[in-house]
Amino acid sequence: MSATTPGSSQQEAAAHPSDTATDGEGPSDAATDGEGPSGTRPAGPAGRRRLVLSAGIAAALVAVAVIVLVTRPSGSPVGPGSTGAPPSGAGSGSVPPGHTPLALQLTRAVPISVIGKDGQKSATAAGRAIQTRLSELYDQTLADPSSWKEGPPAGTWEVFASGIRARARQDAQAFTLGKAGPGMQQLTIGSATVKVEVLLNQYGKVEGAEANVAIDGTGQVQGSGAVQVSARADLLLSFLSGRWVITGYPDAHVDVSTAPASPSPTGSAP
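Above: the chain sequence. Below: its structure as tokens.
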């Protein structure tokens, strides 16, 4: 069994820490020419060289620590433009062999401001974060072959707000292949898009969003042959506890139908 999805792109933000150095020495760094507390005199040039070498090694270790802290992914998002920490148990962070994760294409990110203020930058950042969250959702519910028989992993549903999570799990057929899943042998995604409208308050801050998802593909189902797969969803989202979550789904459905037969020629060439 296999699934084919369109290519995806990723964007990375780089952090640039600024380091400051002081010329003075603290109490623990200063070297004295007299006797120390233990009553011993400091070593000669060789001892001073060892001190300089030790200080250099310590500085290098501090520099490595700073680089690690700056470049490692942060578990705490800084705002609505961040996707937030991945939900626990969602796919266990692994990709099945031969499976390319589904990546929704963000076609539009439209700011909706209550005072008519331009908020395109905020809307675009929020749209990209939502694009990532919903790509993960539909990859695990629809495109990943490992979910066709057993269903998506339990952590998948954590993209839904806690108040509607249980209902979303009960409505799993609105996001999955449903009864067609166990017999699905191959699925090719032809197009996968999302359009996001972002609501901004009177201060220009992101309040919420609405996303429209459209996914179309073709597949092969054992015993049924060629099928067409269509997923549509109108999703409401809010930025809660540092991540985007779905707070409502007025419309969400996945349709699997028999592919129309190829037309037969009505005549033959003379």
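The chain has a mean pLDDT of 74.
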